[in-house]
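Re: folding output
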Amino acid sequence: MRRYGKHTNEDDIRIRPDRRGSRPRTNIRPKHENAVEGMVLTVDRGRLTCLVDGRTVVAMKARELGRKAAVVGDRVALVGDLSGRKGTLARIVRIEERTSVLRRTADDDDPYERVVVANADQLAIVTALADPEPRPRLIDRCLVAAYDGGLDPLLVMTKSDLAPPDKLLELYGALDIPHVVVNREELEKGDAADRVRAHLEGRITAFVGHSGVGKTTLVNALVAEERRRETGRVNAVTGRGRHTTTSALALPLKGASGWVVDTPGVRSFGLAHVDPSRVIHAFPDLEPGTEGCPRACSHDEPDCALDEWVAEGHADPARLHSLRRLLASRERKEGD
């Protein structure tokens, strides 16, 4: 084997030619000015189903996007085969700026946040009034995530044939959250679906809830029959539902403009990513009162200026109680 010395002549170096030619390295990314806009409907093992000009197109993420992931609700730019024919694959080359983000962590000690849905206008928090019993701590955490992510909350109470909603409504009355009360019989007749649909028209609404509360049953009543998803039952022994929805899916609202996003049932909703100081923005009647608070005030300590603000009649005491309950939920487990 020939070894080259310290003072090798360039003519002695053998270079193997590349039949494909040489491509100079560059940091300049292609602009893809002719890319077509689409919306991500669902994600499954690296394949993203997108809505493009009224048809569904299967796509994959371009390598140039790096670790940036697209989620349901994202507005994306696509190139390649956009026909939607079976076996074709387009490429997502750009993810547009998001207007809102619903995020959660596995638990409060998990630093890795998961984006559940992007660009939703509203978060429908679905809870059963019985079978399984309501979990106010989980509802509180979903509310914090909605306020933090820029989504308007909507409380949907199911199974009203098993228990009245009065107690739960009293608990959240001070928050002035829009709400709908439904049961299965009303959903089958269509009356309840119409009441819910009135809150969803013209908006993108993400549905979240504990397994077994009837979330997917509700979603099925709001979409066309051919788009309905499998539903499950509550375990009579554990009182827990079975996960029948395994991935988030955006579906068009039947009989009106708008989208519903069915998400997998949750048993925990971590808030490790939420800065508690942002929760106050959801209470415009209390926020001005924080000007007199000490630096880094938790809004639940002796020197908090909100106590005096409420005492002077600027806001309802129940609103302050609700704020502090939500902030406390950031530090408590759902089952506490």
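--- second protein (sequence, then structure) ---
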Amino acid sequence: MSRTFRRRSVLLGAAAATAATAAAPASAASSLAERPPRRPAGPLVIGHRGAAGWRPEHTADAYVYAVRSGADWIEPDLVPTKDHVLVVRHENEISTTTDVARRPEFTDRRTTKTVDGRAVTGWFTEDFTLRELRTLHTVERLPQLRNRNTVFDGRGRVMTFQEVVDLARRLSRESGRRITVFPETKHPTYFRSVGLPLEEELIRVIRRNRLTARECVVQSFEPSSLRRVADARLGLPLWQALGTSGGPYGHPATYEEMATPDGLREIAGYADWIGPDKSSLVPPRTLLADAHAAGLKVGAYTFRAENQYLPAAYRRGGAPGDFGDAFAEYAFHYERGVDAVVTDFPDIAAQARDALRP
């Protein structure tokens, strides 16, 4: 048996074991609640849109899978409906994550909009009421790469942020661990411009549910959005996400400038975390040490198992969708002292973290 085949067998075997856990009956889930709460030893594992590597993203299945396979936080991306309800979708354009393009009753909703300076054509959440969105079915966003997930197409629906909060609390009770929700405000400047500001509704949901600093961390790529949340004095940690090029829409500084020691000190004035792309933390870059020196925690994004998303040294096999040596990439970042990882495969991230424990 080849080394590559053995490694892939281990990965797939681990995934199968996790799938069995995620599908466990209620009696098994209730037994988890009897365990004493525990804090993770090592970096936090954040389920990116749930467990997007194994289930269509932002579905209840994806969030449940993420938590039952080891995620400490779950991440919902927030966009509004026409009637100003926050729902969870990666983007407000939903043709790749729902079956809206195959629904004849919504053909006339297809349009082109300019979102953050970029022309986008499709169907947009802000043109649908929540009741209308409820009639749609969710699908896998990357069917060519993650064909395994298409078996779940049509089985989920668009969730509200409130439903994710409710689910996180239920999963906390089941698992005996505090599961944190990690909402991201998507395109906040654009939504303010069309009369559907995200922050006001987000703040209302947080207050209505009395979410604490252990239950909710708010993130955004736009500092203006985080400052609006900070002004509400909710007592929640804030996370400044950093892109790899350009800068936040409507912000004078580039991401590169924000990642300098001076820029990091400015971020520390309103946020507790930065979320850079994982490639920004590889030597000779000193971002990790500089952020820690500024008093910021660092959560890197986005970790995935497929070759397409791995550095060349960790790729295995010939196809972009083949799994590479994801464990080695996690080990590299864990050993350097990253505080959290945002991942499509929380099960692999959690196992890699466990492997480093004494």
